[in-house]
What does this fold into?
Amino acid sequence: MSISRRTLLRNTAALGAFAGAGFPHVWIKNADLAHATGGEIKVGVLFSLTGTTAIIEESLNKATLLAIEEINAAGGIKGSKIVPIVEDPASDPATFSEKARKLVVGDKCVSVFGSYTSASRKAVLPVFERQNNLYWYPTLYEGRECSKNVIYTGAVPNQQQDEFVPWLINKFGKKFYLIGSNYIYPKEENNYCKKLLEKHGGEVAAEEYVPLGHSEFSSVINKIRATQPNVIFSTVVGDSVVALHRQYRAAGLDPEKMPMASLTTSENEVAAMGGDAAAGHFTSAPYFMVYKSPENEKFVEAYKKRWGADKVTHFVSEACYFQVHLFRQAVEKLATSDLTPPNIRDAVKGQETIAPQGKVRIEPENLHTWLWPKIAQAKSNGQFEILVEAKDWLKPVPYAAYPGQVCTDKGLVVEKS
It folds into this structure.
């Protein structure tokens, strides 16, 4: 069941009426000192419900709201309800920035949960750093960022590629065709991939980028035919993932001989393209819907019950879900009078929770998350089969591609060689 704009507006209005009737609030104007009293905690929910990345971001909105509803149904946080203010930035970085400022400055939210692409995260980052507010970013990303105003709950390159790239080389061969969407995330992931290929005896057959929303891959397919790589390493995102897979299949290419290996293709994109178009290809991620754990069974059941039996969970929606619960744990440590974004940030350092993927932890030094890498193959039924699981959770190293640079709680440190 999808959320229409009319439904969103109606729900937001209802929340506003609810707050006005039973949960009065007072907000101090200075964003550094903003706090809630009187029984509500305002947070922003900033995921695209329209535009090219809505195919994935709509599900992130759903997972975030599910976690908030669960917390509120259990009594809230020390008796205070979380009040989500939902905005649609429409897959546009400039609109992300505009909406982020509204949520932080206008609505006085103590935290905002949002973004899928790095382009949108980069667009909102100045808002959160200037206002000293807190942004919770759930997406796998390229690393190379060290902000005191972002909690990063998605995987960084070392958590997706360190095992994936050598595994692909050993299974299929050393020749990689790198194809990505044209923005910072794919370029930095490919930068790290090239370092791993060099380390493990692999090579780059070609490297190409297409615009966000790109849907015509015939020239790419022709180049792949001509190059004959062993692996097509994909960091294509959004609607383009669907187009690439369908056109790959229509061209008669064989995933048994030349698979696509992705950091970005999840159950959500598979549902959009159809299981047949995805079957045989690979993804590396910390979470897959088929993962067996009591926490995941509960998450999947709750998600389907709330949003529809045909809906799927995936590695970014899972991070959206558990990061709200980490937010709850952090706020529970604070007195109402101390409920400010900087205090929430300090309280979340070192926090652990049993997420659907396993136990996760916020690394105090860099505000990134310890996660559980996995490698899986897409099946024609729309799900994945997990082939490789990490034996232990893996520390996030956001500057793994840049030896000598380390993100610390004091900021970025460049070590002298």
